[in-house]
């Protein structure tokens, strides 16, 4: 019975990862996870005009300028990646 349950849980997890690409995997580092979260947030702000307008008003800048800055920050939203251990 427990092996059946484990198989069902693994199948559901695989389906979840196939359907939602941003759910990560077992080898995902903290830096990679944070990078994905920040990029998703920035893409959402750029893609939803009311959010971009809200931030533009709050910052006192043009909407185009806010979208440009958000797009630029998507390149390295959490700074340079940490050094890898070999």
UniProtKB/TrEMBL annotation:
Pfam families: SF3b10. Transmembrane segments: none annotated. InterPro entries: SF3b5/RDS3-10, Splicing_factor_3B_subunit_5. Belongs to the SF3B5 family. This is Splicing factor subunit. It comes from Rhodofomes roseus.
């Amino acid at each position: 019975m427990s092996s059946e349950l484990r198989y069902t849980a693994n199948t559901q997890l695989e389906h979840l990862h196939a359907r939602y690409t941003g759910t990560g995997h077992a080898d995902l580092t903290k830096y990679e996870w944070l990078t994905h979260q920040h990029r998703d947030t920035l893409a959402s702000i750029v893609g939803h005009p009311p959010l971009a307008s809200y931030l533009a008003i709050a910052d006192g800048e043009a909407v185009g300028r806010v979208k440009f800055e958000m797009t630029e920050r998507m390149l390295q939203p959490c700074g340079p990646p940490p050094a890898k251990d070999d």
